[in-house]
Structures are given as C-alpha cells and as structure tokens.
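[Automated response] Your request has been received and processed.

Submitted sequence:
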Amino acid sequence: MLTGAAKWGAFYGAAAFVLPSHQENFGIAVVEALACGKPVLISNQINIWREIEAAGAGFVADDTPAGTRSLLARWAQLPPEEQEAMSQRARASFERYFAVGPATDRLLAALQA
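Generated structure:
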C-alpha cells in the first residue's frame, strides 16, 4: 500500500490507473486517480463504472484476464492526443461526479425529494 507523497507521486507519474477488481463498492482509488487527471482502466465490478464510461474517462471491461488484456490493449492503441483528451475527461468527471461540492448538492437534492 502506498501512502502520502509516494501514493500521489505514483498517481501523477502514471499514464493511467488500472484496477481490474472483482468487486469494489465505490473505488476510492479510482476517484483519486480521476482527481489527478488519470484515465482509469477498470472492471465492470467497480460500482462507479457507469460514470466512468459515460464520461469517457477510461475504459471498462469484464473482470477476467481477457478483459484486463483488452483494457491494456485499447489504452496502448490510443494515439497520444486521444490519451491526453481522456486525461482531461478524467479530471472533468471527478469534478462532475465526485468532488465535494457536486456530491453534496446531489445528497441534499436526494434528501429533499
């Protein structure tokens, strides 16, 4: 497990974040990667995969060896300008779905409904 400066250095130094997990109820590490503007390559067993897919902030595949290979291959085949565009969408998706302000607004709206 990485913490502190080592963790944030790893995020900022990465081209993308890969988590082909079998189950994540939220995926805080995925959100941390998005906050750093890193595209995420995740399995469809991470409960926020729909937001990632809708935002174009990464790739989603099955939680199998074949699915993981597919994620890595798709990323490797992207031209650099498309990787950069996905990085920008990653940060934007963090701001839209997971930053404190928007998350608080959605919670308050749900409570008032």
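Summary generated for your ticket: The chain has one domain: 8-112. The longest strand covers residues 40-43.
If you did not submit this request, please reply to this message.
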